[in-house]
Design a protein that fits this description.
Elements (H helix, E strand, L loop, with lengths): L4 H9 L5 H9 L3 H14 L18 E2 L7 H17 L1 H9 L26 E5 L2 E4 L4 E4 L2 H4 L8 H12 L9 H14 L3 E5 L2 H16 L3 E5 L12 E3 L5 E3 L6 H4 L2 E4 L6 H7 L4 E6 L12 H14 L2 E5 L13 H4 L5 E4 L10 E5 L1 H8 L26 H18 L12 H22 L4 E6 L2 E6 L6 H12 L2 E2 L5 E3 L6 H20 L3 E2 L8 H6 L14 H5 L5 H20 L4
Parallel strand pairs: 4-16, 6-9, 6-10, 10-11, 11-12
Antiparallel strand pairs: 1-18, 2-3, 3-4, 5-13, 7-8, 12-13, 14-15, 15-17
Helix pairs in contact: 1-2, 1-3, 2-21, 3-21, 7-15, 8-15, 9-14, 16-18, 17-18
Length: about 600
């Protein structure tokens, strides 16, 4: 199987190749592709992995301060910051405590850290317009949370307000059919390339129903998902992979019996294709988040294409979860990025324009399991298939249907009659994609320049700022608090989005806010110099010239339980070795 640039990049970054395997696949590329890999690694690996003649930076990457290593200066700084923040947003902080006796808020514990809890509360918003939101204390923020990705067109775009007001003026029955419903369905199919579609009440529900359709069509039970993907809150698809490669229920109240029906594999790992092939007779569907919202740099084109080939061969339903990428990556979502068309795709967020919406689109032979297929009134025809159960009072709510129609019409207006290809998009979507890339690369360059252990991963107009060495630790939370104080509102999930309303000036302000935040964190000691690791004794002992040493004393119980080497450090050393060799190739070395 041919090796692609995406495969090599993906496999190095996700640590699926060891050094020799990475270099072997790298050697299979042509010269232009090799340069693409080097450039890609440079932009997507943190500082300390610079590709040059020797493949090393002058100094190693800094380390994030751990919560347990806070000193008096850090505690004093947080106390001072808390006092200043209370004066900035007093009404929001008062609301956070005053209403919690009766208001259940699942978001308030996201990322909660004991030293920071006086700063970790949700803002109370007053209004929103375009790329901005204002809190009840009058502070304005550039919004990159984007309502978890809903707002492709910013807050309250005129075309959306008009559609909703017009519908409200005509009444908004929940279950009645309307001309809007028929037009929205037809236009959605035309834009996305699906043969038939059905509305659901939410993204979670659309995933749950899509899986039910696949099981009905195949008569099989198992669902293949991939580690790192998120498919909503349905018990049918929500589980984690345990250390032995099995599936485990995701939390309290979720039954292990549901998790047992999931086969969770590595995304992008070609070796996992064999697992699907061996167990094809029990697999109803392969469920893919084609660009993982938590890991947007994972873009394994050849892997996804191989999934398409195998699922066609084995009569397994291939489902794309396009909650994030649907319409955001273009009218056809990620189909034009991967060159792959799934059997079924699920949507929400953008397609509903902010209304509670889910959409399932796909081939008629699968979608027919919802209503039995098409028939006529003037002959003996009847539904040809048995139906699976799907129902919901708000599936065809006329307000959300009006919103979905407005979104489809705006997409049609922007893209015209042409097929908007992800790689060569010239409309407004292509513009915000390019803005997102430029913003991400500039921030990554600043991280590298200052040896910060952070990186921005991105795809389309989604970007995600990751702390590499402590992904959910103190440093991450301090960063997002300071970013908010610097006038940029983000999401507790970490996913950020640009919209068609973000200007170049807004993007510059976002970058400046990140830089100011990092400068403050450096000054306050939230990034520290790493400890210099001594050469492992095992390496010295293996050297032919090494002196013979006496056998060491038996380790204590505590030392025996500790790992031989820090995993993160080992990964970084492996990356450095790979980068050094790639740098030598670029420079004409061996």
């Amino acid at each position: 199987m041919a090796t692609s640039v995406e495969d090599v990049l993906e496999s190095i970054l996700t640590k699926k190749f060891d050094r020799q395997e990475a270099l072997r696949h790298f050697a299979e590329l042509d010269d232009e592709q090799k340069l693409e890999v080097v450039a890609g690694l440079r932009s997507r690996l943190p500082a300390g992995n610079d590709v040059g003649g020797d493949g090393a930076s002058a100094k190693p990457t800094l380390k994030s301060l751990h919560e347990l290593n806070m000193g008096e200066s850090h505690i004093a700084y947080i106390a001072d910051l808390t006092e200043k923040y209370e004066k900035r947003v007093p009404k929001s902080k008062d609301n956070a405590l005053k209403h919690q006796a009766y208001f259940v808020d699942q978001r308030k514990t996201a990322g909660l850290k004991r030293p920071l809890k006086s700063l970790q509360f949700q803002l109370t918003y007053d209004r929103a317009d375009g790329p901005y939101i204002w809190d009840v204390d009058g502070n304005r923020y550039i919004d990159v949370a984007g309502d978890n990705g809903v707002n492709l067109f910013g807050h309250q775009p005129e075309f959306m307000k008009k559609a909703l007001i017009d519908r409200m003026n005509r009444g908004y029955p929940l279950v009645a059919y309307s001309e809007d419903l028929f037009q929205a369905a037809k236009m959605f199919c035309e834009l996305t390339g699906h043969e038939r579609m059905v509305f659901a009440q939410s993204g979670t529900e659309s995933l749950m129903w899509a899986v039910r359709i696949a099981r009905a069509a195949t008569g099989r039970k198992k669902i293949v998902t991939f580690d790192g993907s998120y498919h909503g809150l349905s018990d049918a698809v929500l589980a984690f992979r345990d250390r032995k490669g099995g599936s485990i229920s995701a939390g309290l109240g979720m039954l292990q019996e549901f998790a047992d029906q999931l086969i969770i594999l590595d995304y992008g790992n070609m070796d996992q294709i064999e697992t699907i092939e061996k167990r094809a007779d029990e697999i109803a569907c392969v469920l893919v988040e084609p660009i993982q919202s938590r890991f947007p740099s994972r873009q394994p084109k050849e892997f996804v294409r191989e999934l398409r080939r195998l699922t066609l061969e084995k009569d397994i339903v291939l489902i794309f979860d396009e909650m994030i990428t649907g319409f955001r990556a273009g009218p056809k979502g990620v189909q034009t990025f991967y060159g792959v068309k799934p059997d079924i795709a699920t949507y929400g967020k953008v397609a509903g324009g902010g209304m509670p919406t889910g959409v399932i689109g796909g081939l008629a032979k699968y979608m027919d399991y919802v209503d039995g297929g098409t028939w006529r009134f003037d002959d003996a025809s009847m539904p040809s298939l048995k139906r699976t159960m799907m129902a919901g009072t708000h599936t065809q709510n006329s307000l959300k249907v009006a919103a979905a129609l407005a979104i489809c019409e705006e997409m049609k207006r922007m893209c015209g009659d042409r097929v908007c290809d992800y790689h060569s998009c010239t409309c407004a979507l292509g513009d915000i994609n390019r803005k997102t890339e430029a913003l991400s690369l500039e921030i990554n360059a600043y991280f590298e320049q200052h040896r910060i252990p952070m990186v921005v991963e991105y795809f389309s107009s989604l970007f995600r700022i990751q702390v590499i060495d402590d992904p959910f630790g103190l440093t991450r939370e301090v960063f997002f608090i300071l970013l908010k104080i610097n006038g940029v509102e983000t999401s507790t999930s970490g996913n950020c989005f640009l919209t068609t309303t973000h200007s170049d000036d807004d993007c510059k302000a976002i970058v400046d806010a990140v830089k100011n935040t990092i400068d403050t964190m450096l000054a306050q000691g939230f990034f520290v110099e790493p400890e210099v690791e001594p050469e492992p004794e095992a390496a010295v002992a293996a050297s032919p010239s090494a002196p013979v040493k006496e056998a060491p004393a038996a380790p204590t119980a505590a030392k025996a339980a500790a790992p031989v080497a820090d995993t993160a450090a080992a990964i970084e050393r492996l990356k450095a070795l790979i980068m050094a060799d790639l740098g030598n190739v670029k420079g004409g070395g061996a």
